Amino acid sequence: MLAFNMLHGDQQQALQVLTFMVNGESYALPILYVMEIRIWTGGSPLPSAPAYLKGVMNLRGAMIPVIDMHVIFATEKKHKTEDESGNVPAAVIIVELGGEPAGLLVDKVQDIVTLTADDIKQIPTAAGQETHKILSGLITIKDRIIGHLDLDAFSKWIELPNLNGSESAPVKVTNG
Q: Is residue 1 part of a domain?
């Protein structure tokens, strides 16, 4: 079941998604979740953090955890063409996860696409339960199959450190 309702009366409402790439594969997430997009210039690692937590970045005085989507999607980062400074271009999509801002480290932000509910198809059951903790459906755009990231389910599956509070929250991926 999709995590959003796009029907209003007898008409379908349009849904805009932001498409992005991770290791040559395209994914999408609802644009309403996107707070901003930043160029990844590096961050500060956290000791004993899980592999998916790339570190933290300073966003106008707030410490924002950055999740490496290569680890989440279980892909190894391919080598890319470096820019003139020797850096591999990457982007951080700032979203709200569980009521707190977090960054999603991706290779590239692509387009904003308008969809309807009919454009989002069910994930085959052969994909397994872990896929359903991350994706809510599949989208076909110009012969590309794109995974639709379900941020509500994802925020329940992943736990992030409490960076702005007085107590530290556990940092782990849960099985439930």
A: no
Q: Quick check: 154 and 29 in contact, CB under 8 A?
A: no
Q: Which 8-state DSSP code applies to residue 173?
A: B
DSSP string over 3-63: SS--EETTEEPPEEEEEEEETTEEEEEEGGGEEEEEE----B--TT--TTEEEEEEETTEE
Per-residue CA distances from 83 to 17, 57, 90, 91, 143 (Å): 28, 22, 11, 14, 29
Tally of domains in the chain: 1
- CA separation (Å) from 137 to 10, 14, 52, 71, 170? 23, 16, 22, 20, 29
Q: Residue 11 pairs with which residues in a beta bridge? A: 8
Task: Identify the CA nearest to 136 among candidates 154, 149, 145, 146.
Answer: 149
Q: pTM of the full predicted structure?
A: 0.77
Backbone dihedral angles phi then psi of residue 159, each to the nearest 5 degrees: -115, 140
87 pLDDT exceeds 60?
no
Full domain range(s) for residue 61: 15-78+86-157
Could you tell me the two tokens for 16? 């805009």
- Give the model confidence (pLDDT) of 24-76 as tens digits: 999 999 999 999 999 998 889 988 888 889 999 999 999 999 999 999 887 66
